[in-house]
Amino acid sequence: MTSGVSGAVRAEDFTIDDTLVRRLLAAQFPEWADLPLQPISSAGSDNAIYRLGESLTVRLPLPNRARFQVDKEHLWLPRIAPSLPLAIPVPLAKGAPGEGYPRGWSVYRWLAGEDSAVAPVDDPRQAAADLAGFVTALWRIDTAGGPTPGPQNFFRGGPLADNDSWIRAAIADLDGLVDTHALTAVWDAALDAPAWDRPPVWIHGDLHDGNLLVVDGRLGAVLDFGALGVADPACDLMAAWTTFVTAATRPAFRAVLAVDDATWARGRGWGLTLSLPSRADLSVDTRMAADSRRRLEEFIADHRYGTFSRP
Asked: Where are the alpha helices (DSSP H) in the chain?
């Protein structure tokens, strides 16, 4: 996780800043109130994050849609963590609304490392296999009582067809910048693939580079379980396109997962839902735009030629 962000964060009808966080700590967890407090940059937009002392993190949900995350993570993360091969955040204390802040919030153990968007791994093939190992371990955990797709996890892992209208509109908006016919074919294949017909599994639901921590050149932790739910495992195959996994390492990723073609096709569809840039984003000459173009080209190539047999 990366520190160094300063200033207040505005969210709907309230503002989060250092003063508010200190007031919350003083009122509810006075044993931590005098520890150094440092805002943390994040790839996501659902939480304001602060490092507290050397070993703690404070997370405060920002938008109303994130209000379900605190109770869910406090209930489930301690239960699933022992079964996973990589570290995940485990909550230590749950805060209540107060001091003008309207939501529950959490204190977690600090996880060291840098997110994989900025910290390269030493062995990309090994990292891809490690990530796939994490995903398969998550899929094996007992799902009894787990939450199904809905507002609590932004509907991740639910029916792909629920995204059809906005995906087609987003693809059409890129006409002239990318091969929209080919991207539509990727999406059509995802919708046409047979649905998951076995028991649902635990999914992370938001696997992208900003939620993966690299420690000493290896994948060390997975963050942000706000989209955690029990659903179609294809949702987590988004990681094949939204993380450091590339065309060169995608076969290693899929080999560990051992998924069928239908699940892989639905996974491409879930990847698209998280990867489609806006026309404005793609129209500029930036590294981000170039990365977006490359990612879209890889969706198309994977659909045309398959993960295991590229020309």
From this structure: 18-28, 69-80, 124-140, 164-172, 180-192, 239-242, 250-257, 261-275, 279-282, 287-305
